[in-house]
Amino acid sequence: MTETVLVAGTESHVGKSTVAAGLCRLLARRGVSVAPFKAQNMSNNARVAVVPDGEWGEIGVSQYVQARAARIPATTDMNPVLLKPRGDGESQLILHGRAVENVAAGAYYESQWEQARRAAIESYERLAAHHDVIVAEGAGSIAEINLQHRDLANVETARFADASILLLVNIERGGAFAGLYGTLELMPDDVRDRVRGAIITKFRGDKTLLDPGIEAIENRTGVPILGVLPYDDPGLPEEDSVSLPQQGELAVFGNDDGVSDSRGITIGVPRLPRISNFTDLEPLTNEPGVRVAYLPLQSGLGRVDAVVLPGSKNTVDDLLALRNAGFDEQLAAFSGPIVGLCGGYQMLGERITNAALESTADHDIVRGFGLLPVETRFTTEKHVERVTRTLDPVGLLSEADGTVRGYEIHMGKTIATQPVGRPIGEGSAALNSVLGTYLHGLFENKNARTAFVKAVFQSAGKPYLDERDSFQSPYDAAADLLEMNAPHLFRKFADIDR
Question: What is the CATH number for 226?
Answer without folding.
Answer: 3.40.50.300
